[in-house]
Amino acid sequence: MSDTYRSLLVPLDGSVHAAAALERAIEIAKRSRAWVTLLHVIEPPRLPPVGAAYVVGLLSAESEEQAEALLEQAVAQVPEGIPVCTIIRHGHAADEIVRRIEAAEHDLVVMGSRGRGPLRSLLLGSVSRAVLHRSPVRVIVVHADPPAGAASPEVRTTAA
Questions:
Q1: HSE-up of residue 108 (Cα within 13 Å, Cβ side)
Q2: In a 10 Å sphere around its CB, with 0-12 CB exposed, 13-18 middle and 19+ buried, how is residue 45 labelled?
Q3: Model confidence over 102-134: pLDDT tens digits?
Q4: For the chain, does the N or the C end have fewer beta carbons within 10 angstroms?
Q5: Which region, left, alpha or beta, applies to residue 10 given φ > 0 means left and ψ of -120 to 50 means alpha?
Q6: Domains in the chain, CATH or no CATH each
Q7: How many Cα atoms occupy the beta-carbon half-sphere of 87 within 13 Å?
């Protein structure tokens, strides 16, 4: 990737895919001397129609303190010399990510391929898929698990 970027948006949700996306974003930021914005969206709890009691636990409300802790851990991974800021939003993740892209004029989004697990992704839909389709800028979607024989995480990109 030979493009140079000035402002990267990295949505984080605590998943291994988001952690891999942060690593990738750091690499890009070093090369481009870009600013990194770490975004976490606290989504309202949703109760799916299945009504299973264990699902409620998976979809319980997240606290502001949990979100701040997640972002603090991520900031600690960003090397000195890379400007970084954090943002917490409340709402639906894909909507808030696209709003931030448009409002702040980021020129690249680097995000994980899925959220906190397959069940949550199935019930809530794919945030990365929605952002890919709606983003006015380039999006890199990073997978934490490399395909067999591959040395690094799989990356999918789309140009705006």
A1: 23
A2: exposed
A3: 999 899 999 998 765 555 555 445 899 999 999
A4: C
A5: beta
A6: 7-76+91-158 (3.40.50.620)
A7: 20
